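Q: Here's a chain of 109 amino acids. Please give me its 3D structure as C-alpha cells.
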Amino acid sequence: MVDTEIWKPVALVKDISPDTHTLRVMLEGEAVCLYDLDGKVCATQDKCPHGNASLAEGWVEDGTVECPLHQGVFEIATGKHQCPPVTSDLRCYEVRIEDGTVFLRSEAA
C-alpha cells in the first residue's frame, strides 16, 4: 500500500489521453504533466522552462516531448533538454501505480 504522506494520488492511468499520451494534473499547487510511454507512466513539470507553455499540449514522440510554443524538445524519462531554444532541463517526479491510480512523490525527484 502506498504511503499517502509521501505519495499523492493525482489521476487514474486510464485518464491519460490515448491521443496525446499526456495529462495535466496538479501536485501541491504545481502543474505536472503525466505521460504514457507505451504503458510506462512518467511525470515532469508541465510548464516549459523556456516559455509559458503547457507540455501537456506538446507533441510526444519516441520518448520525447516537443514544446508547443517554441519547439524545444525534452527527453521525458530524464527531463534532459535535447535542442535549442531550450537550455534548461525539466523537473521529473517519481511515479508509482497502484490499482490503476497514479501516485506522485510529493517532493521533486
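Q: Can you summarize the key feature?
A: Residues 7-105 form a domain with the Rieske Iron-sulfur Protein fold (CATH 2.102.10.10).
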